Amino acid sequence: MSEGFLLHLLRHGAPETPGLFLGHTDAAPTPGGIAVCVARAQDLALEAIVSSDLSRASKAAAAIAEPRGLTARQDPRWRELDFGAWDGLAAQEIDRQALGRFWDDPDAHAPPAGESWSTLLDRVRVALTALEPRSTLVVTHGGAMRAALSLLCGLDHRLGWAFDLPYAALLSIRVWPGTQPAGQIVGLRT
């Protein structure tokens, strides 16, 4: 077996209004949130940088790439789960039972007009297979990071959500590419 490549998944920094279900809402990041992401990635040896096309991820990716002489490529497949009608709301504003059903079974109880867990998995699966086998940083969102964990390490949604991935969390995975890529968690910094 080859030694694989390192995939670093970095959650975007704090948005201007933290604590909301932002999904596909393009909420601006704070300057401090970008700075924390830059500091978190400082010691990574990178050959490529990819990000979600949403500004809270893409602005941090550009700030990390620029001093390294790299160009951050945007890929919308690395977006957060689409929370549909819940986008922009705080958890307290969402029907408690509906939210509980979603956390329990995000396929059967996707947010109204939103995306199911399986759809997110399919999207991230395609994004993962599009990566070249080289040391890569992907600046993305908590849901997409959990989907990658599920796909690469075989974790179901409950185990993926058991990981605390606060803003600017850095998850490093050794990836063995192939028709069914596999991974091993080699680091988590929060």
TrEMBL record:
Any Pfam family matching the protein: His_Phos_1
Full protein name: Histidine phosphatase family protein
Recorded superkingdom: Bacteria
Organism encoding this protein: Novosphingobium anseongense
SUPFAM superfamilies referenced in this protein's UniProt entry, alphabetically: Phosphoglycerate mutase-like
